[in-house]
Design goal:
195 residues; alpha/beta; Glycerol-3-phosphate (1)-acyltransferase; 7-stranded mixed sheet; 7 strands; 25% helix
Amino acid sequence: MTFKNRRVLKAYQNQGYFLYGNHTQPVGDVLTPRHISPFKSMYTLASPANLGLPILGPMLTMGGAIIVPDSWRKLREFDRIVKKRIDQKHGIMIYPEAHVWPYYTKIRPFPDSAFHYPVQQQAPSFCVTTTYQKRKFGSKPRRTVYIDGPFLPKADLNKKAQQEQLHQEIYNCMVKRSRSSTYEYIKYQKKGEEA
């Protein structure tokens, strides 16, 4: 895995920030934040379903996963944990596409609500776009990860408009970067469509 443009994070090492990535590696996406900023504590928002993964699931929280609550009752505690990690100057990785599509080379739609926390915390965000290129040897593609940002909520907008603004900026940047993929290891098509 090669990282491009990691230097954009340097000026933000002494504050908390959010990272948004395309979800294309079942296990690799758990480890990517650690490689992006090895000297900063990194956390990843994860679905409760991930706890059921064999072997890896029970260890996720030890590795920095923050489990998204499955009920409204647990939301206040979850909000408190996210705020605490940002206040402690840590990074939080979010995969807004929710479900992993292995080796997918495009960016799937995701909701404005994925940007609730950067707006709530008034924290910078970065996008982390994984792209795929053919190797000279072997069948699995090489991964190149681009880091872009910072993207900051515009103070003159209301909170909902700030979420929309961040969503558009980050989504557009990820779509642009995804065009650096030159190899489709798995071909995805809608059911019923011809290959």
